Amino acid sequence: xxxxxxxxxxxxxxxxxxxxxxxxxxxxxxxxxxxxxxxxxxxxxxxxxxxxxxxxxxxxxxxxxxxxxxxxxxxxxxxxxxxxxxxxxxxxxxxxxxxxxxxxxxxxxxxxxxxxxxxxxxxxxxxxxxxxxxxxxxxxxxxxxxxxxxxxxxxxxxxxxxxxxxxxxxxxxxxxxxxxxxxxxxxxxxxxxxxxxxxxxxxxxxxxxxxxxxxxxxxxxxxxxxxxxxxxxxxxxxxxxxxxxxxxxxxxxxxxxxxxxxxxxxxxxxxxxxxxxxxxxxxxxxxxxxxxxxxxxxxxxxxxxxxxxxxxxxxxxxxxxxxxxxxxxxxxxxxxxxxxxxxxxxxxxxxxxxxxxxxxxxxxxxxxxxxxxxxxxxxxxxxxxxxxxxxxxxxxxxxxxxxxxxxxxxxxxxxxxxxx
Length: 420
Fold this sequence. Notes:
Layout lengths: L5 H18 L1 E6 L8 E8 L4 E2 H8 L3 H7 L13 E2 L4 E11 L2 E10 L6 H8 L6 H7 L16 E7 L6 E2 L2 E9 L6 H7 L4 H7 L12 E10 L12 E3 L3 E4 L4 E4 L8 E4 L21 E6 L2 E13 L2 E11 L11 E2 L4 E2 L28 E2 L3 E2 L14 E7 L3 H17 L1
Parallel strand pairs: 2-9, 18-20, 19-21
Antiparallel strand pairs: 1-22, 2-5, 3-4, 5-6, 6-7, 8-9, 9-10, 10-11, 12-13, 13-14, 15-16, 16-17
């Protein structure tokens, strides 16, 4: 195009910007389902403003301590729920991934519209692109209208959020899935490197024909995890914890961690509440999470008290004994850090956002070996490699027609133009 004049070139690029929104759609990986089962999943959420931990938790209907635990942030410090998280911080939000309308999604989140809210600002600002305006409209049976038209203050909205289960496995290994909204500047290789997985795995999980993702697409990212084997009678049946993080269960009486040395679930008392059921293994003086060792000439007699689930208000435990060649050393726990106070916006996974004003809040003591480091700039803990495909499909969300999405398309068009 060297012979094209500057004015003509500009006109062509503008034409592309005008035309692309009509044909470009954000894609979301979906998992067909039937029945009423559910699984634990994670939502990748970028804060649109400075928010307290409790505000983020209330927005998604989760527990503040559970939110911190899922990000390996100190969940037992004084006033942890009232710590302020900075705008632009990327966090993993735990959610239940249910089966609704024949596909996997989270349908438990409710949002009360504030003055000046629109479907567009709720979708793209408050929930950071995890849901589209049309998806929110459809989930609430609203008449087709301008997504920028103001909503009635106090109007209650169901917010459908994307998630997948895929049997909580990836290549026959335990895994939990993170719903990740592709940002401007992201590429599939960059995303794969950020989560220490492979481009091939992401492509297989998301049924991608090529390793190309556009801003606004939502990808399912498999994270290696520690799976439980609790009975179906347990209220925490199916508990799964992403590598390098924690989960709270049994009424916040028990904390379970995964890694860093192995993908074996390890549970100990959390002590976040003043009243908890007994955690002592029967017919022994060994407490939950404790290990007793007795060296002998033949090896080491090891007794450990393991968590077996929360059944009818009772913390079930089991005593395991055996002879091992040598006595085990202290258990290594995932490192906990203080909630950050600033965000490194140079990181691909922590992009700055232009967003509306902050939302109103709608509607364990770490083991000695898991030190808590001071706050500051924050990078989400890495996870170990995941390999192998799961089966997924892709659905198309409504056209990206908001200002910041148009800017994303404009940048994409400029890139295409430079290569012509």
